[in-house]
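User: Predict the structure for this protein chain, please.
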Amino acid sequence: MLALPLYGQGRTDSVAEKNKGKSVSINVGLNMVMRGFNRIILKDEYAQINLRSMRTNLKTWPVWDTNRFSTNFIGHPYHGSMYFNSARTNGLGFYQSSSVSMAGSLMWEYLMETKPPSQNDLWATTIGGTALGETLFRFSDLVLDNRTTGLERVGRELLAGILAPTRLITRLTTGEAWRTGQSRGNFLHVPSYWLELYFGETATGTTGSNPSMWRSALGIELLYGELFETVAGKPYDWFRLTGEIRAGNNYLHLSQANTLGLMLNKELLHNNETRVTVGLFQHFNYYDLNGRTNNNTAPVYISEAAAIGPGIIVQKKKDKSTVQFAVHLSGIILGASTSDHFKLEDRDYNFGSGFSLKLSSSLQFKQRLTISLFSEDYFLFSWKGVDDYEVLKQLTINEIDFLNVQGDKSSTMLNLLGLTMKYSLNKRVHVVLRARSFNRNTLYTYFSSVKHSLNELFFGISVNV
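Assistant: Here is the predicted structure, written as structure tokens:
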């Protein structure tokens, strides 16, 4: 049975030697294998590359593509995390690994497809891949333990391989995947962390709609490091990672994935009761809240794939209670939201840039009851849009590839408001009740504005792992 301690304390007991060549060779091999699979097994047209297609792409300015939301905003960042972790596993630092992720993305976009290079893929794979890459690398570092053997060892290696596939590839090629020793084999100092699994049922419905749709939900939350004890010497010495999968109505999908990573910080106040810190944070947020439905209900998409900005966190402890407030502001280089009009191939959303404002507060009372409130506001602007929608019906495949629009000319305001109540049955098991409300207001240049809302209620159990 795989078991991770709730809190880990330790010191770095292994440091990988830098091996840039191996990192590059793994990424080249990864791209070649994926291209071969797409060409031979799936027989995808875009994988039928040759020297002519490569020369053409090298002369082509990147465009906005028409891939589905999940492909662009979780598939490509995860792909980028594999590039990133091939470098991290072979001894490279955060920023060096980010450049390797960019190189892997450039190779794929310009040399591995017959379609024109995609600018949204370059941003999502590089910056989104860096955000996911560092969190998943550190997560896998908590999982791996070279002291273990048997089924536990296999379980740890496989789980770490899901989190960071190129780390598993490296460990297999070096023999470390089965080599035992007296130390865990961590790359990094093991900080305090909190890992929690939760599961339950979610009811989702829109205002004035038919009865709510029920789906089962399974999620994970990892708090890595102690924020108020961290002086960020390296990016992501503190971060929060959340993921959730939903199943029901003959459909399984990833409903959300979120990371918030500390890049640097400074403590402003520290006394017996109150602590205040400010910092610079990298944001990655992905929401697909209602998934696939059998009616005409619009999907609920939010993406913040490439974003960074300042934040301030205040914590006050008194007696047996802890109160915490946080404010985060980010500039969004690449984001996306639902479109009510732009439907082309797999696209039903608009790319955009803008900013976000996030507010959160929590109250913990006697380590029994925790009440949390949060609000996430996203403001996205899509300026390169379609002017003639009738033309979309007559485009050839090649013309679609070079259409190069963000979607509708529009500005979108998105709000996600939530309340979570958690009651501890014991030190490991908690009852969780969560209510969330999503509201979207899209102002179109050529259409009337559209307002859409979605409400959901989750009830379940969470367990500290």
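Residues 63 and 118 are 5 Å apart (CA to CA).
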